[in-house]
User: What shape does this take?
Amino acid sequence: MSEQKGFHADMEKCIGCKCCEAACQDFYRMPPEIRWRKVRSFEMGEFPTALRVHLSLACNHCEDPACMKGCPVEAYTKRGKDGLVIHDPTACIGCQYCTWTCPYGVPQFDPVQGVVSKCNGCYQRVDEGLMPRCVESCLTGALSFGNVDLHAAEQRQVVTEAPGFPDPSITRPSTRFAWPLKGPQPDHQVSIAPPAADPHAPAQKEGK
Amino acid sequence: MMNWLHDAQYSLVLFTLFTQASVGAFWVLLVSDFLKRKAPDAIQDAFTRIGTYILVPLTAVGLIFSTTHLGRPIYAWRALRHIDSSWLSREIWGFGLFFGLVALYTFLWWKRINDAELRRHIGVVTGIVGVLAIVSQIMVYQIPGRPTWNHLSTFPLFGASGLILGPLAVAVVYSIVWGRFIDLKQGEATVRLSHRRLGITLLSGAVIYAVGLLWRLHFLASSAYQPSAAVAGKAAVGAETVKTALVIGHQIVEANRLMLGLQAALGIGVPALLAVALWYLHKKGASLKLCNALIAAGLPLVALGELAGRALYYLTGRPWF
Assistant: This one.
């Protein structure tokens, strides 16, 4: 089993309240223009099934992090024990190349500090057995965090693709998603894992 | 205005153009050096020797601009650390080495002129390092994270910039020194020959640049006229999301047609016309002063076209998610 940890975002449960954004920003005392977690809203589907979808995203702690590979100063490391990708601002020279190489727009440049910063998965809290602040603050339980392989057993749906989310084959992000119950389903794009506890769940669909 | 300059990555525009011009200029001088290997020509050597004066300043200015976009330029040297996987690190290694070698090559021309074989050996190494540095520079933009840059057309575009700007800069130096430091009559044949070679180089550069630009424009437009989620303004999924980036890139080009026009007219049209004009004027035996005046007028125009084109290149690399 992979030790890779990652977030799971349930788009059915997310109401776009942005508590996760605020909790993260407050916890790390970040300036207003820097948001390690961002809630994006998308329109998807066609009338009469069109709907507004909210997607809460932070760093995807990718298996193959483009930020780490491209960084000229080795400011990024990927932890062996849980796969979290950590950025060291003291090593950063503010070249901003990681803001280009990351397809998900995760690293953000702070012109005042002259360095880039990004979500570190609250690794200090995780080391203490706590949940990341965003997960802890989520009102609806839309956000969760844990071993990527265990999401399938705990979540309604576990897919690697989401609306607007760049092709996961680029960096193999660890974030997983559950799509809204109504509206388009990702069955043509990705495999859907049924809840393990449901004996009447449909058979797993294969990817394209 | 400052926001626009920031979006257009003005410091990277200048860094890439200056360094590409320096590699292009170096190759012109190296080829001139080699062409006279078996039949030494003191006049040609005098031109080449003076021409090397521009190499160190061109590369140095480029390298200075490579640091001006950094949040903490004082630590710029740290960019050398990650050569094993970062193209950006390799690029800085490449141009750092190129700068040192170019300084050595210039030193050999000025202080050890009789050491021609050593100079040429160093020159070959320098030329190869320069080309590898430009390849690294191009690879910096071959990133799936920015689909509008992640295209092979960057190779001809960046390569042609060096092929046009470098030789043109050397030709302007030749036109300045001819008559001042080199006798008018003695230098005439060398200048005429250099103009013919310049014409061929400029024409080749203009063709390569035009191919690169058309290829890139076709790539950016490839998703704009097809039914897709991106065109409908809706969320795409998976590999389809790349189309969103391309549609954004295409819209940026459409909104900056003036810059595209400057790029095409001045970056491609002027070098091509200059090549034809030089060929025609030399065929008719026109005065060299007229040819030199055309070259001197051509350099700022071409530079303006290149600046507009490179700024547009960076503008299209906007975040897409």
Summary: Chain B has two domains: 1-140, 146-321.
